[in-house]
Amino acid sequence: MAKTIMIVDDSASLRQVVGIALKGAGYEVIEGRDGKDALSKLTGQKVHLIISDVNMPNMDGISFVAAVKQIPAYKFTPVIMLTTESDPAKKQQGQAAGAKAWVVKPFKPEILLSAVQKLVLA
């Protein structure tokens, strides 16, 4: 059975690029437009990994990750932050919220897929 990955980004084109790379590698994909939209889609189904942007309207990625970690079903779901943010203070905030990896845009799909393969829940 395919593993499910959630992509959270306010850029439709970025969600599409990441989605194509993930689907090409055999993953199922759920998309969220921002943290709020993504939280509404976490309804108890198994999600093996979350890839989230940091800077988004309505709810930013760090607040989103912190909220996800409060939901028992997703407490241990690994999160990769995919962002233009390279500020070490932001990275620390992301890690404190529960992010496991930080990939800076623009990114190479193979680098992202390598991080996904290392972190995706069995």
List the helices and strands and how they pair.
Blueprint: E1 4-8, H1 12-24, E2 28-32, H2 35-41, E3 49-52, H3 61-68, E4 79-83, H4 88-97, E5 101-104, H5 109-119
Parallel strand pairs: 1-2, 1-3, 3-4, 4-5
From the spread of the alpha carbons, the general shape counts as globular
Distance between the termini: 11 Å
The CATH superfamily turns out to be Response regulator
Q: Tally of extended strands?
A: 5
Overall CATH class:
Alpha Beta
The total number of structural domains is 1
Structural class: alpha/beta
How large is the radius of gyration?
Answer: 13 Å
CATH architecture: 3-Layer(aba) Sandwich
* Mean pLDDT across every amino acid position: 95
Order of helices and strands: EHEHEHEHEH
What would your notes on this structure say?
- The chain is of the alpha/beta class and 122 residues long.
- It has one domain (4-119): Response regulator (Rossmann fold, 3-Layer(aba) Sandwich).
- The protein is 40% helix and 19% strand.
- The protein is built from five helices and five strands; from the N terminus they run βαβαβαβαβα.
- Strands 2-1-3-4-5 form a five-stranded parallel sheet, with helices on both faces.
- Strand 1 (4-8), helix 1 and strand 2 form a beta-alpha-beta unit.
- The longest helix has 13 residues, at 12-24.
- The chain is globular and about 35 Å long.
- The mean pLDDT is 95.
